Amino acid sequence: MTFEVRHWIGGERVGSAETFTDVSPIDEQPIAEVARGGAAEVDLAVAAAARAFPAWARTSREERARLLHAVADGVEKRIEELAQLETSDNGALIRSHRRGVMPRVAHNFRFFADRLLRLGHEDFETRGHRNHVSWDPAGVCALITPWNAPLMLATWKIAPALAAGDTVVLKPAEWTPLTASLLADIMVEAGVPDGVFNVVQGYGAEVGGPLTAHPDVRRISFTGSVPTAKTIAAAAAPNLTPLSLELGGKSPLLIFADADLDLAVDLAVEQYDNAGQVCLAATRLLVESPIADAFTERLLARVAEIRQGDPREESTDIGPQIHRRHVERVDGFVRRAKEAGARALIGGGPNEDLGGLYYRPTLFAGAAEGSEILTEEVFGPVLTLQTFDSEEQAVAMANGTRYGLAATLATGDPERAERVSARLVSGTTWVNCFFVRDLRAPFGGSRQSGMGREGGDWSFDFYCDLKNTVTAPWAEQWEK
Ligand SMILES: NC(=O)C1=CN([C@@H]2O[C@H](COP(=O)(O)OP(=O)(O)OC[C@H]3O[C@@H](n4cnc5c(N)ncnc54)[C@H](O)[C@@H]3O)[C@@H](O)[C@H]2O)C=CC1
Ligand SMILES: O=C(O)/C=C/C=C(\O)C(=O)O
C-alpha cells in the first residue's frame, strides 16, 4: 500500500495537480505518491517563509534553542520510525539508521542550539568608539539536499539556519522525499511556528530551478553533484545569492609500506559502506609497491565476505543502489573502465542473484592514468587500486583530480603522516582512521568539491549577516 506525501507550506499540507511515484530501492515497489511541485509551490513556500521571518528572527536565542532541543526530543522519540522510513526510501542499512544516523539527526539540532547560545557578541573600542559585532539572521534559506543520507544531510543545514533566526524552504531529493515530510510533523509537535520550516517536494529542475532563482531567497545551501551545483550557481548569479556547496569527491586512501596492513585493509573495506554512495568515500586506493600484492590479496578476501542484501536485515553489510537510473550510471562507469583496459579483480557488474538495484562490490586495477574511472565520482561500490614508489609520487597522485573533499592515509610513521597530510588538498584528512566526524570541525571540500564549510561557527558565518555597529562616544547630554 502506498501513502500520499504533500508539501508542507506555511503550516499546512499542500497538494499539487500532479504527483510522482516514490519507489523503494529495496524491491523497486512503489511506496508513496508525492506531490510534484513547481514554480507556484515555490512561490507559496518562499512567501510563507518570508512572512514568518521577522517574528522568528526576533525570537530570543534562548527560545530558538529551546525549540530546537524540542525538535531533537521529537526525533529521538521517533528514531525507529525514521530509521524504517529512511531505509525503505533510500536503501541504506537499518542498523546504521537506528544506531548512527538518526541519533546524529537529533544531535544536529542539539549541537546548533547549544552553539547558538555561545555565539559571541564581540565588542571592542576604536579611538573611543564602540564596535559591536552581531550575527544577524539573513532571511529565507533555500536548502537542497541529496538522497544518500537524506535527513542527516538536510538537518546539517536546517538546524543552523533555524538557530541563526532564518526561515527555511527545503527541497529534498525526489528519490527520497519521506523523512523530510515526517520532520515537518516533528517541527509542529515541537512548537516551531508555522512558516518557519517549509518543504517543497518535486524534481530538481522543476522545484530547485525556481527556488534557486528566487529573488526573495537570501541563502542557498546545496549538497549534491558538481554539474547541478554549476546550474544552481548560474541561477543564483543574477541575485548574487550567497551559496554553500558540498559536492562530490574522488578521495584517495594512501597506504604506505610502513602501515599496519590489517588496519589498511579495514579502512579499504569501509569505503564500500552505504554501497559506495558516500561523498567522502576514499575510492582510490594508492598503495606503496612493496606491499601491493599482500594488501590486494587480503583485501579481495575481505571484499568477497561483504554481505550484500536486504538493508532491513541487521546482518547486511551493504544494500542496493538508490535507483535503476543510478545503477545504469554506475554500470556505465564500470563498462567504460573495462573497455579502456582496466581489470575488475572482483565484482564488475550487478548482483543478478539479488536482482534489481544491487551492484557487486568492485575493485579495479590497471586503469590508465587520467582515465575516467580514476578521475570521476562513480558514487557506487567501485574502488580502484594503483601503486606508488615514493612519498612524492603518492602526494601527486592523491592531489591529481579536480576534487578535494577528503583523504585518508595509513602509515606507521607520525612524521610522514604530518608531512603528507600538510600537502594534501582535502577538506578533511584522516590518519589511520576514517569517518571520525565531529560537528565542531569544518566540513566541506576544496577545488570542485565545494564552496564554504559546514559545522561549528562556520555554519553561522554562512546563515547570518555579520554586522558591525560603530557607536561614537555619547556626549553627556545624550547620556542623561
Ligand atoms: N553528497 C554528495 O556528494 C552527492 C553527490 N551526488 C553525485 O551526483 C551524481 C548524480 O546524482 P543526482 O541525484 O543526479 O544528484 P543531483 O546533484 O542532481 O541532486 C541533488 C539534489 O539537487 C536537486 N537538483 C537537481 N537539479 C537541480 C537544479 N537544476 N536546481 C536545483 N536543484 C536541483 C535534486 O533534486 C536533489 O535534491 C551521483 O552519482 C553522485 O556522483 C549525488 C548525491 C549526493
Ligand atoms: O556523515 C557525515 O558526516 C558526512 C556525510 C556526507 C555524505 O555522506 C555525503 O554528502 O555524501
From TrEMBL:
One Pfam family from the record: Aldedh
Active site: 246
The entry's keywords: Oxidoreductase
Source organism phylogeny: Bacteria, Bacillati, Actinomycetota, Actinomycetes, Streptosporangiales
SUPFAM superfamilies recorded: ALDH-like
Protein name, entry field: Aldehyde dehydrogenase
A GO term, aspect molecular function: oxidoreductase activity, acting on the aldehyde or oxo group of donors, NAD or NADP as acceptor
Keyword Lipid metabolism: no
CDD domains reported for this sequence: ALDH_F8_HMSADH (cd07093)
Presence of the UniProt keyword Zinc-finger in the record: no
Family: Belongs to the aldehyde dehydrogenase family.
InterPro entries: Ald_DH/histidinol_DH, Ald_DH_C, Ald_DH_CS_CYS, Ald_DH_CS_GLU, Ald_DH_N, Aldehyde_DH_dom
PROSITE patterns recorded: ALDEHYDE_DEHYDR_CYS, ALDEHYDE_DEHYDR_GLU
Residue ranges of every copy of the Aldehyde dehydrogenase domain listed in the record: 17-468
